[in-house]
Amino acid sequence: MEESQEKKYSLIQTPSSFNSDDEIDVNTNVVEMEPLDYSSLPFKQVIDVVTFSPNGEHIATYASKEGKLVIWQVKSRGLLYEEEERTIDKIEPLWHSNPNTTDLKPREYWEYRKSFVSSFTQKLRMTNIDFALSNDGKYVALSLIKLPQDEDDLTAFELLHPPPHKATKFYTFIVKTSRDRPIFRRYLMRLTGAIKFTENSESFVVCNVENNNFTSITNEINFIYVISTDNWKIRHKLVINNFTDTLQVIPHPWSQINTVKNSLLPGHFIFVEQWDTALLWSLSTGQLVSRFKCVQNDSFLDADASPTLFALSHNQQMLAAWTSKGILTIFLCEGGLVFASSLHNINKIDKSLTHLNKLEIHWLEDDEHVVTTCSNGTDSEIYVQMWDIYTCQIVKKFNNVQSSCLFEPNGKNIYVTFKDDLPKLHRIETPRSYQIKNKNISKQQIIGKHHFLGSGFNKIFDYSKELLYEHPSVHGSRNVSKLQDDDPIVELRIEPWLIYAPIKTGFCLDPNRERVLFIGHYTVQIWIFKNDEPPRLQFIWCRPVKSKDKPPRMIYATIEDATLRKFDDGRYVVSLRCQVNEQDQRSPSKSNIHQPPELSKPPVRLMTVIVESENIFKFDLWLPDENESGTFDIVSNAASSLGFLAYIERLNWIQISSQSIRDHFRKLLTQCQTIIYDAIHKHSHVFNHIVEGQSPLEILIKVDCSYADKLIKEHLKTDKHIPRFHDPDRTKSALSRAINLGKTEVVHLLLDYYCRRCEENPISWTITVVPAFASLRTVYPDFALEFMRRISYLPVRDDIIRTDQEENYAYAKLEELEREAEENLWQRLMTWWSKSEKEFDRQLESATELVRIPHKTHPARECVVPLPDFTIYKPTPKSLQKPVETSKFPFLRRIWNYMLYRKHKSPFVEEAISGRYEMFGEPAIEAIINFKWRKFARLRAFFMLTVYIFYAVAFLIGVSIKDDTIIRKISMIVVIFIGSAYFGLELMQMMGQLGSYVLSPYNLLDLARSVFPMVVAGQYLRNIPPSEGLRGTAMMFVYLNFILQLRMFRNIGVPIFIIFQIFRKVFWVIVILGGMVFAFAHILHILIRDEPDESGSDFSKYSTSLVSVYLFLVGEFGSIDNLKEKATIIIMIIVFIFVSTIVLLNVLIALMSDVVTETKLSGKQAWLKQKAEIIAELEMYTFIPGQRKRKDYFPSLIYYFATPDSIKRYKQIYKGEEKEEEEEKQLDDINHPLQKPEGLDDITEVKRASTRKLQRGGTLKLI
């Protein structure tokens, strides 16, 4: 965007200000054709077809009757003027085929063919020849398309003078222009199908669909061949038999050939699977990119009409589909969401486009407009439509375009036509957004000026600079005013909170004084005054300034000077000079601004900002046109101004409390909200616009006021599409902004919106939640739990299938085209070695294709975890990649980066380490755990358990042997070796988890199980006998860790969790009890240590006294048998027994009982969390970064089976909990002292007791 602003002649990629309510005059748009000069050719030809190279810099033409191929270069001559913003292009012949080497025999290009179905008798003019050109004109290719129903062989291309001992027939004819000779490769010459060069021209793609797999008995296969242009060897082949099966339902060869040609997109392949479903595949990997569902009342496949045309945007993030009914739909490639559709706006099909033949569709270079071309039945007239992708409405139409036109593929506003022997370039007028232009001063007319005066003023000017009203009058008289004091223009208070010194300069923008611009001290406003209508606000602007303090704060600049100018084309611009006071009295913090203020990212109307000093800056503001409404600029500025008005209401509530001032302020506030409200219901597409990383919805969230929250709620109720992310990194969204600002209600509304839309398309809408899930869980844990409940058991489809898999069996759908490649011997050996595992995984993943055993199957519903990329790791940061290339020791640096990379986790790992265990009882999370455990974690966990058993056995054997034998030394060496590996894993965990490492008891026990045995082993190897305490401690940690290793099993994991929960709950009770033991041990030690003989021997030392007092807790009083006659000692013991044994121990037992009762209910959740922690540790510390890119281990989506009974039972429990919460909330309201009726406590208790009794299976007796 910065580059586009520096080059004033380039397009600014912002939405145009097209008003959807304006009518389009199709007769006034004229195509402009540039006068071009051509170099002469040494032959005459009649061009049949023309094609562009992928980068649009070259053109190729083919004349079939002359057999001539010509490559033309598109050159630019002249300068690029900022005022004109256009170039003059010409084309010159660069290469043409040679009669001796590359000329082809004459043939017919066009032919008339009838349908394969006898009921369709009409013949259509068509061709089965496809044409392609590579970048720089290096290769030019022709191919023949053979259809599955074609019985006769095609008429191949033949050279006019073929060389000896070479093949003479070409079904795919490729010429290398630098050598002026064809590519003679037999397999390539025999291929048929649509062809295309990739964008970088490194690959050549052929879509071969000649085999009739629908009815054929033989195993014929159709491929997409991806061929390298370096050596013309096949990179890989993709099987596309399903595409040819779908092709059979199209009855006419004209439609079939167009379908095949349109199936090849840049880097992708698309075909219609069903009448309402289209699939987009990657040509490089063969994997399914997305699945698209057409809108209601539309279809991708229509047997009686032309095929659906598809086009990918230049950033490959959106797909445009133009169906035979003339309906344009824009899809998001990620997830296949419908972004906009022409059917959504008018709710009916445009009949004027239905009967036309759809020829071409492509995107303009701004990725905000789509161009479609169509023709009537005779192809004598070409019609061009330009669509706005946000509204899917036509913004321009052209009806006088010459036939046989082809648009430049990179979205330029040029197209080529051909007649006879010369192609011609034409330029067409495209819709443009507002652009920043340096207009000359001579083209501007100054209407008036505004200058701030502290005493206040009110001036009104006419559009012809005439002063209509002034107060106070300079001459002390108002007789010269043409407007009275009661005129609505004069009476209107644009900034009513300025009571004593109102500031207003008005400019009438039209002769009828119906549209008036007002400039105040803080705002710029445009009001509409029409007869018999109240004044209406069209546009309001204020400039928020973001200070560079920490934390930054938002303040608002004041307008010191303004100048209104009018251009020759009738547009107005206001030149503003704004100031931010060094001690801003309107700022709540009243802190100084020590650095120049930073303007928040402006809309496109705001021209280049000039910062004069720390607190003064100037810029130009373009004003909206007369009939402009619902555009991004108007709505975004109204949203910012709404926050400013809410801020003013809080700051100047005393001034606004006056009745008259409050009425004026409410009027302004209501009008500002009306602008946004009308946009929500009439121009909802404006909320999809993103300019400088901001959308109107995000601005409403950022202004942080109750008025904006109501409008956000109103917009989300419409269920219209909202942007999922606002930045290319896909981290900033409306949800993340609301969480960071702590807007509870907005967060709940957004989550509810995503869940509702998720029911329509369960794959894509929740992708916004995944990057913000960690912060959502931290700030709003209850919202995160509720969200996870709502997306659990979300079915992919409504039908019920039969399966023999267990409940919650999880799997990943890695849908991909079968890929074949030319392999060397080693690759073939590895393919054979992994074939059995590959086939097993394929059968396991394709659960719907498994052979079902009838008596073992049960009904199930296929569900999905609608959290895309929840298990995927982010790519390695560039900050870690660069030092490897420049380091002197790249291998060591790569190892160090590998250890540093541990802290980069997937959202699932973050949830497993830091999440609440209640979250893991939800079916969606359980499905993820089941998938990971089955896919890779189970094998690795059992391997780690086996290694630990070997490690523990070796250590225990070594410490159990009395004599120093060779067996002990071997055992201790094994302990040192494996213990060092364990210690290395713990070091990586320390670096990955940082401060949270010491908070986990599992980590501390893992560290102890490696350190203490290694210390003991080291002393044995050095012939130093370790102490008994060291050996016992090491053995204790080895046994304890072995028990913890078994927590992956449910019967052991749940008790372990109960034990840890008991320690957490009763920790402070144990601390108090321990303090009592230490205190009374010290007291008795002081009182009894001087006793003679053996009566006080157990208390003579503090250590023995401590043991004796501890034994009091278990009823052992033998140490005081000889001291029962001393009253002081007896009293102390009675106090200790009462406090410790009777009180504290019973409290401890009660707490432990409560913990056991609670954890029994949540035992499965706790066990699943422990299992998730094991999986997370395996992912972080046993996978290298390259392994984390495996799609089969870390898929974007995870599917699972669930029985209908489980789904029904879960929904009932979830609805029951919601009902209980609602009842408790109502009871809380009723129990308020001012609302609680008499006797309600008794009634409530009876009702609760009855409900509990019924739930236990009891019966109620009538009294």
UniProtKB/TrEMBL annotation:
Please state where this protein is localized: Membrane
Q: What keywords does the record list, in alphabetical order?
A: Membrane, Repeat, Transmembrane, Transmembrane helix
Region (Disordered) residue spans: 1221-1240
One cellular-component annotation, GO = plasma membrane
What is the name of the protein in this document?
Ion transport domain-containing protein
Instruction: Tell me where on the tree of life, at the top rank, the source sits.
Output: Eukaryota
Question: Which InterPro entries did the record assign?
Answer: Ion_trans_dom, TRPV, WD40/YVTN_repeat-like_dom_sf
Organism from which the protein derives: Rhizophagus clarus
Using the record's annotation, list all stretches that form the Ion transport domain: 942-1159
Q: Name one Pfam family in it.
A: Ion_trans
GO term, biological process aspect, one: calcium ion import across plasma membrane
Give an example GO molecular function: monoatomic ion channel activity
**Topology in membrane:** Multi-pass membrane protein
Residue ranges annotated as transmembrane are 941-960, 966-985, 1066-1087, 1129-1152
* Main localization category: membrane
